[in-house]
Amino acid sequence: MQLMHPGLKDILLIQQYIKTKKIGFLSIETPLPPWFKKISQSIPNYSIGLQLRREYRHISMGIRAFRLKDIDTIFIFEIYNQHLLGVLPLLALTGKQVLISLHGNQQFAMTSKIKLFGLVYLKRYLQIFNNLKVVLFEIDDHVIPDKFRLPASSKIIIPHPILSEVTPNLKPGERLPIDAKIKIGVVGMIRQDKPISKLIARLQEYISSNSDQCELIIGTPFGQKPNYLDQLGVALYDTTKEEDYISVLKQIDILVIHYDKDRYYYRTSGVISDAGSCGCYIIASDYPVIKHQVNFPVPIGSTFSTFDEIGSLIDQAITHIRQKGQDNHWIWREQRSAAAIAKLLFPQNT
């Protein structure tokens, strides 16, 4: 199954840990009929065509829900708030328990009126139909204003799942060789006008003073790589392909990542989950959900409020890696496995 957020794919494994319920999975990432795709792409306004394609995918998902005959619960991997008008009635009318994964939906409603309307619409459905539930990641929504929160009885909270197909490089008890350089990494989309460029500059300053024990590597899709990165004199890796992205994460000892507050204050990071799964020590923006993601059930990193903190946090990270290796990562994985998530979603059936 194709997913908008590939880092959630381990949720597909929960069925093997559930004894008495059958789970069906649905995603909006479904192929479009060629005729519809052609018509929508012929519309001069790209945004209108895009929204039509998304609306089709939501309605198509709602219709596919009725074809899941021999299942008890439907798990929805992703939705867009602005496209709930047609799909929610379809999901409610299935009569089955429906779990809707929210991945940033409440966050986006804070800056968009149409997405706020969709969230309010979802809230009404949750109040009326007991078979509809939402799945929130990491923490409850008490950290955001009341108008963006959802009914308490409709929420199930789970940690962001790991990628079970990858593991940390160091086994429990193993440590890096004494002479091994620590690789500090930045991974993701990079634009020179965004704060990420300031972060890279700060990391270069740190490494220039600690070049005997650290080196900087950057992973980014080369198709959108800004030219200035070529002038930095650091190791650059193309992360366009999924396997290359994971390969870069496996090389990194410390991942430093910064997010805009208006997009990630109440939202998990797929990159943090992937990096944690690979054994990276994480240094990330200090927002409530990300802080929980980095610290539950045990710390695998730290968070910062200003770039001025990064140097001292890297010092702490290096000490942690030298003394404790990736031991905490193996513990962190256990509570984020498909087995652990199955117990949270279906406590009476595992």
Description:
The protein has 350 residues and is of the alpha/beta class. The chain folds into two domains: 6-159 and 337-345, 3-Layer(aba) Sandwich (Rossmann fold); 182-334, 3-Layer(aba) Sandwich (Rossmann fold). It is built from 13 helices and eleven strands. The strands form two sheets. The chain has a six-stranded parallel sheet, with helices on both faces. The model has no long low-confidence stretch (mean pLDDT 94). This is Glycosyl transferase family 1 domain-containing protein.
Features:
2 domains, five-stranded parallel β-sheet, Rossmann fold, alpha/beta, 350 residues, 15% strand, six-stranded parallel β-sheet
Globular, elongated, flat, extended or rod-shaped: what is the shape? globular
Structural class of the secondary elements? alpha/beta
Got a strand count? Answer: 11
Mean pLDDT metric? 94
Q: Which CATH architecture of the largest domain?
A: 3-Layer(aba) Sandwich
> How are the strands of the largest sheet arranged?
8-7-6-9-10-11
Number of helices, where a helix is a run of at least 4 consecutive DSSP H or I residues: 13
End-to-end distance, in Å? Answer: 24 Å
Strand content range: 15-25%
Rg, alpha carbons: 21 Å
CATH class membership of the largest domain: Alpha Beta
Organism: Coleofasciculus chthonoplastes PCC 7420
Protein name: Glycosyl transferase family 1 domain-containing protein
Furnish the topology, listing elements before pairings:
Blueprint: E1 23-26, H1 34-41, H2 46-65, E2 73-76, H3 84-93, E3 97-101, H4 105-109, H5 113-128, E4 132-137, E5 155-158, E6 182-187, H6 195-209, E7 214-220, E8 235-238, H7 242-251, E9 254-257, H8 261-264, H9 270-278, E10 281-285, H10 288-295, E11 301-304, H11 310-324, H12 327-334, H13 338-345
Parallel strand pairs: 1-2, 2-3, 3-4, 4-5, 6-7, 6-9, 7-8, 9-10, 10-11
Helix pairs in contact: 1-2, 2-3, 3-5
